[in-house]
Amino acid sequence: MFKRIFGKSKIEKSLLEEQKNLSKNDLIPTHIAIIMDGNGRWAKKRAMPRIAGHHEGMKTVRKIARCADDVGIKILTLYAFSTENWKRPKQEVDFLMSLPQQFLKSFMPEIMERNIRVQLIGEKDELPQTTKAVLNEAMEKTKDNTGLILNFAMNYGSRAEIVKAMKDIMIEVRDGKLTIDDINEETINDYLMTSQLPEPDLLIRTSGEVRLSNFMLWQLAYTEFWFTDTLWPDFDEQCFMEAILDYQKRNRRYGGLKGEEMN
Ligand code: IPE
Ligand code: IPE
Ligand code: MG
Description:
The protein is an alpha/beta fold. It has helices spanning about 1-5, 15-20, 40-45, 50-70, 90-115, 130-140, 160-175, 185-190, 235-250; strands at about 30-35, 75-80, 115-120, 150-155, 200-205, 225. α6 links the parallel β3 (about 115-120) and β4 (about 150-155). The protein has nine helices and six strands. It has a six-stranded parallel beta sheet with strand order 3-4-2-1-5-6, sandwiched between helices. It has a domain at about 30-155 and about 200-250: Undecaprenyl pyrophosphate synthetase, CATH 3.40.1180. One 3-methylbut-3-enyl trihydrogen diphosphate binds near residues 40, 41, 81 and 85.
């Protein structure tokens, strides 16, 4: 069914109808994580300021969130700002920090209509007051929504997340709430910011970079990776479908053997 859809050149209403049926397919990934990269290069190619690329990238976020919802993805995690991105010029950082407000202002009615729940991973307290406030408001407003989880990684860094989890676990041990023998993979998982979410099934990175840039190091242990040269502002439903189609062809072994391979 997927092939048939992918073969079409235009994504139209009827196609979206068909996409909805895909949610019945077991091979639809539950959780997709995306490293949205290439906004700056997109702008540079057009002799525009980098922030114009970020603005265009925001439109892609909307497009892909809609598509993920239509296809029946349960969780879409989007890497929007890393703990390392503070190194960028202040003007660019300020613009990136204003994007959640711009995004939510225009998209919130549709978020509610689609029953989407907004969530966040990352060090929220280090965000500017307004950014924090709009994100808090969106999370509060959507907390009872039961559809797609739109999870933004904002001021997120995997190493910082792991360090924090380690410290929190050690505090529990110090206070006698956990013993060293209690600590296993599940415990560590429970202390990460993603504790309530299943691990990503599929990781997409755009713009031709083939690295993780400090993203979900623990959680991606058995995730399928998919890279594309397409820059994030140019990424569209077709690319997203292509990634899912490729995912469907993968053989996830988790270190074991599958089916016939056992013989
Ligand atoms: C991704 O695009 C957005 C963020 C990292 C915030 P970039 O801004 O990294 O774009 P390039 O990699 O410079 O093209
Ligand atoms: C990763 O992209 C971070 C986000 C997409 C938010 P970067 O553009 O910051 O990564 P590097 O610097 O190329 O590794
Ligand atoms: Mg980049």
